[in-house]
Design goal:
This protein has 204 residues and is of the alpha/beta class.
Length: 204
Amino acid sequence: MSADAGTANLPGALDADRIIRAKKVEKKWWRNAHEKAPEPLAFSNAAGRFSHPALPFKTLYLGTDSITCFWESGLGRNLALRFPGDRTITEDDLRVRVEYTASLDPVGLRLFDASDSAARRSIGAHSSACFQAEYATSGPWALTLFRAGAHGIFYASTRSDGACLALFESEATRGAIRLLKKVRRSYDNASLLASLFRERVRLL
């Protein structure tokens, strides 16, 4: 869990020419997806931090490591919100989740780094909490950045030590992301199982 992110505010008018863009972009990312997903790198409008059926774009969530991807996925978020005594997961839940690696070509992409305080000031965000809150707060920021021409948002995971990337669907982002390989099922990830143990999640 990250430190106190501060107090969030909603976006106001934004000058697209003043936005500070991310200068360093990782090229290798991880993805955690259900085995029945139509494709591992599918963009979705499912309700999430930077995605929602009401938004005019779909979003693809990636992580810097496999554990971050799990905890930021729907399955992991659900576990993190439960009381410790209710944190259980079945083997089948882990067997149907598949871990993939992907490559990102950042050339031409305009990405916003929510962990950069100078970048946040350039758009009027008072703290990183603007990008770590639930959809009612983070969604308007995603929409504002999308309308200003951003292709996605880097942000710190609130559930692990890793970082995440929310890519907004467009011709540019679809062309920039490529599947590298299927790595394993989540059940076969020893490091992930250890993280579940640390979080007092019982495997059924």
